[in-house]
Design brief:
Blueprint: E1 6-10, H1 26-38, E2 43-49, H2 50-53, H3 62-77, E3 81-88, E4 90-91, E5 94-96, E6 102-106, E7 113-115, E8 118-120, E9 122-124, H4 131-148, E10 157-161, H5 172-189, E11 195-200, H6 202-205, H7 212-216, E12 222-226, H8 242-254, E13 258-263, H9 279-293, E14 300-303, H10 341-346, H11 365-368, H12 372-387
Parallel strand pairs: 1-2, 1-14, 2-3, 5-7, 10-11, 11-12, 12-13, 13-14
Antiparallel strand pairs: 4-5, 6-9, 7-8
Helix pairs in contact: 1-3, 4-5
Length: about 400
Amino acid sequence: MRGEYIKGLNYWPADSGINWWHRFESGVLEDDFSRISETNLNVVRIFLLWEDFQPLPRKVSTERIDHLVTVLEIANKNGLKILPTFFTGHMSGVNFLPPWMLDFGENNSRFPIISEGRKKKNRIKNFYKDREVMESQKILIREISSALKGHPSLWAWDLGNEPSNLIIPDSREDALIWLEEMVSELKRMDESIPVTLGLHQEDLEEDRKMGPNEVARFCDFLSIHTYSIYSKYSESPLDEDVVPFLGLLTRWLGSKDVLIEEVGIPSSEKFNYEKVISEEMAFDYYERLLKKLDRYPFIGILFWCYGDYKKSLWDFPPLDENEHERFFGLFHEDNTQKPYVSLIKDFQKKESKGLSSYDWIDIEPEEYFRAPLTNLKRLYRRFKEEQG
């Protein structure tokens, strides 16, 4: 599997979403994973919602761990590999955190905070330098990695979902210390399992002190989340060049292989919201995108996400105020495939002929974050020109 091209998706169940670990049903998972396998996908990224798995600083939920083991068992039966994501707090425009991760003072994130089902206005503790929090994180890593040690369906570890959207490190040094300690904790259990961290495209638009270069110092490969609808520089919300550009930029900055860990577009034939396009337009977008991605030697691609969420979840965070997040699925709410899934199912990566030219890059990596957004916009124009 390590040498195989990764073609997978990010997973929350359509009927429970962020509440998955509270409403865990193995029967639902059996059906979903069978459906995923039949779509010729091979890796599923899942999220260990922090407050569900670690309700107290030194307590990890044995019930959640049992459910996690069940996830890997069902994955194994369906020929799937799993990429678990630690410390999942940020999700779809909302920060979900255990109460012990909140401190006195006003919210220091631009996103709303939910803890124990209620909105909070507290500050988030700085887990890059708070030693007590870091020790708690190591406890979670030890418990989870011990439970999954040697499991045939464990593909890799992800240290966090866009962690800079929770809190930005005070310094590059803090970020490097945190990365080194967390990766070392995982490697202590099993050196053979690769480790990555889910960077967001905004980590390339501003200097958040933990970009590709810092992550590459300790992680085995880089992961980047790429959405044309969120770009501040593309020609249109359906500009397919955004994804390979951000992947190549990440590889150039970090000098390591890259997984396109999130890519997607919200689509629906029944609902008309801002950013939500027709399924016909989505089909055209994915057709163009997959042809572009076939040119480049990325590790693989994980689509966002499994399915459109059921209406029963729409009145609750993160879907209540982020309407387009309801419709990123490869599958409709009733589990039928969207039209473009046939493209994904049939997509087979050809062997790349090496990296495309980096002639469109006119600066050195160490210069990039002196003016990241300015450099990104200019480099994107140059990249587009090279594409012809």
